[in-house]
Amino acid sequence: MSSRPAIRHMKTLFRIEWTLFNRVKANYVFVVFVPLMILLSMRYVQEQMDLARHGLNPGPLMVSTAAGILLIFSLYSSVTGLYVARREELVLKRLRTGEASDAVILAGGASMYVAVAVVQIVVVAVALSAMFGAAPRQLAAAAAGLVTGIVLMIAMAAATAALCRTAESVMVATLPAIFVLPMVSGIYVPREVLPEPVADALLWAPLSPTVDLFRSGWTGELGLGESVVRVAIAAVWTALFVWVAARRFRWEPRT
Q: What is the mean pLDDT of residues 182-208?
């Protein structure tokens, strides 16, 4: 499929999902306010840590924390539920009978939540930068973190949805990522405060590269080579989740 029809299909799917999203006002609670409440609570938790002793600046740290939280709650968990719900409603099956490719169908369905997450991350990052007086120093690294995080979360959502039998099972299926991923990726607890062997091992966690790139956007701590390594790690995890989704994703309800 050429790029023009693909973009047209993406726009159509975006408008459909945006309309459906706005019909249920409770969506704003789960996608907007809940992550922000978690962010505020994590601000309190991180205030109890001796960040200065570990050479950590709270401004960049909170930006990376916010980005990680929003990617998980506003994008990953929402898109996982979206894929399963649309599969159960036979929407995905009907879309496959048209011209749109599988990748366009999945990306188009997720595009609305991508837009919401990007707006949230940008607004929160600007607000935190103003609060802490921490101006961005390496915007290319922050942009790389945003892109790798979005692609990774969508791929992980598709892989998780492939393992869900019903819409009711989404909450259980996403629990490992919601609870474990922030703990091991430096979102809740910076890796610098952990023992060095543990911190080195957790560098390879799925979302750690994205968190590191976001923080480097405000600290400039990563060189080009280190940034490339982070992007490569994120790409490997993304490829793994894409492989799982390609093998296991179902386009119609499970019997």
A: 88
